[in-house]
Amino acid sequence: MTPVHFSFSSAFMLGLMGLAFHRTHLLSALLCLEGMMLSLFIALALWALQFETTGFSAVPMLLLAFSACEASAGLALLVATARTHGTDRLQNLSLLQC
């Protein structure tokens, strides 16, 4: 495993562990998701550059577009949650409560 591959896989795993273990605020969960998407984007971009394929070069941009849509939907949910519940703590949110 090359050091570059190790750094991106460890960045992805750190984001995944942060998402799994530090679930107190919705904003921290969104930041962990963005870190995971950023590491995936950089890994896919470097993979496309390494193999020098022209057909695969659009995939990192597509992932970046989906990541931007995910971030905007997450921030919209964060604002809506903060307005209705008064906080972004995930312990106050429940699916049984509307």
Question: Which features would summarize this protein structure in a list?
Answer:
73% helix; 98 residues; mainly alpha; NAD; elongated; Helix Hairpins
3D architecture notes:
This protein has 98 residues and is mainly α. The chain has a single domain (3-90), classed as Helix Hairpins. It is built from 3 helices and no strands. It has helices spanning 3-21, 26-51, 59-85. Helix 1 runs antiparallel to helix 2 (26-51) and helix 2 (26-51) packs antiparallel against helix 3. The mean pLDDT is 87.
Briefly say what this structure is.
This protein is mostly helical and 98 residues long. The chain has three helices and no strands. The chain has one domain: Helix Hairpins.
- The count of β-strands is 0
Quaternary structure:
single chain
Q: How many angstroms does the end-to-end distance come to?
A: 48 Å
Over the alpha carbons, how many angstroms does the gyration radius reach?
17 Å
Summarize the topology:
Layout (H helix, E strand, L loop, with lengths): L2 H19 L4 H26 L7 H27 L13
Helix pairs in contact: 1-2, 2-3
